[in-house]
Amino acid sequence: MLDVRADEAPRPLTVDEVIGCLQQRWQASYDLQLVVRRKRLYFQVMWAYLEQQSFPLDETAYREHIAQVIDVVNRLAQAEVVRDWLGSTRDRPRLGKALSLPLEGAERLEEFLL
């Protein structure tokens, strides 16, 4: 259970924190995606990563993309859930298989996604 005092707001995720966590856990800057399936929102760690020659984004575009994903996570108040999951999941992204975390707040999806 998260121990947050009433006077402490949940700490939002930052781009540097998330990229640092990805690199520390899996030694790669994996792509992140938000996916909607059956009116559920999933935070996914994809198998493609920035350090691959075939990765379609440069570092600046990658950081901007990660910032957009994290912004939605923070606005849904799911930062701590994602932070805990990234730090504790036992699986790792593999070719063709993303890691997937269902997020709460699906009733507000239209507010964040096109």
Major β-sheet, in short? 3 strands, antiparallel
Low-confidence parts: 1-7
- CATH C-level class is Alpha Beta
Per CATH, the architecture is 2-Layer Sandwich
Mean pLDDT comes to: 88
Structural class: alpha+beta
- CATH domain fold name: HIT family, subunit A
Reading the helices and strands in chain order gives HEEHHEH
Write the SSE topology:
Layout: H1 15-26, E1 30-37, E2 40-49, H2 59-75, H3 79-88, E3 99-103, H4 109-112
Antiparallel strand pairs: 1-2, 2-3
Offer a concise description of the structure.
The chain has 114 residues and is an alpha+beta fold.
Write up what this structure looks like:
With 114 residues, the protein is of the alpha+beta class. The chain has a single domain (15-112), classed as Protein of unknown function DUF3067 (HIT family, subunit A, 2-Layer Sandwich), CATH 3.30.428.40. The protein is built from four helices and three strands, in the order H-E-E-H-H-E-H. The protein has helices spanning 15-26, 59-75, 79-88, 109-112, and strands spanning 30-37, 40-49, 99-103. It has a three-stranded antiparallel beta sheet with strand order 1-2-3. The termini are far apart.
